[in-house]
Design goal:
The protein has four helices and nine strands; from the N terminus they run ββαβαβαββββαβ. With about 180 residues, the chain is of the alpha/beta class.
Length: about 180
């Protein structure tokens, strides 16, 4: 862990070279006495929706913060490289959620669609984490010539999702705001 410069006057910033959850844990337990008031995790490049939330280091860091009793918001956006919707809504949504209560092991989960701002249909709140699969994928094995097999993922986006879910919201070009719970 080491101190780093930050573009905002009066802010002390730190970095560490662990995983995002490690960074949150070190910060909460060792850097900020009593832990920070809030943890903002992300912005992840790629959605934290449906079953994909379990693979996200951004969501993992947010859940680590929640395990430590910290109010947390995880932010993600489509990996398309379009940031217009995120830029437009992130400040407003952050201000809205900073003091909204959460239960034990819960995080605010915010996902921004990968569309131009003009195509964004607005913000949908109270989205639940979809139980639908975001990707239909498989692993393809190829011999490497040394008696081993190298597996690569072949993923195909699944464009269907249940109503009132995070996945349905982003597929329909809405910002999705909801609570995710980790029961472990």
């Amino acid at each position: 862990m080491w101190k780093v410069g930050f573009p905002e006057a009066g802010v002390q910033a730190f970095a560490c070279d662990g995983m995002p959850a490690d960074c949150v844990r070190i910060g909460a337990l060792n850097i900020v006495p009593g832990g920070p008031d809030h943890v903002l995790s992300g912005i992840n490049s790629g959605f934290n929706v449906a079953s994909d939330i379990q693979y996200s280091a951004t969501a993992g860091a947010a859940f680590e913060a929640s395990f430590n009793g910290l109010h947390t918001i995880a932010f993600s956006e489509d990996a398309s490289g379009l940031h217009e919707v995120t830029d437009r809504y992130i400040g407003e949504i952050t201000a809205e959620l900073l003091d909204k209560p959460l239960g034990i092991n819960q995080i605010w989960n915010v996902n921004f669609p990968g569309c131009p701002l003009a195509a964004c249909r607005g913000v949908l709140r109270d989205r639940k984490v979809s139980t639908d699969a975001f990707y239909r994928d498989r692993y393809i094995g190829s011999p490497d010539g040394e008696d081993r097999v190298i597996y690569t993922v072949e993923g195909i986006r699944h464009w269907e999702a249940s109503e009132d879910t995070d996945l349905r919201a982003v597929l329909d070009n809405y910002v999705s705001v909801g609570i995710a719970t980790n029961i472990s």
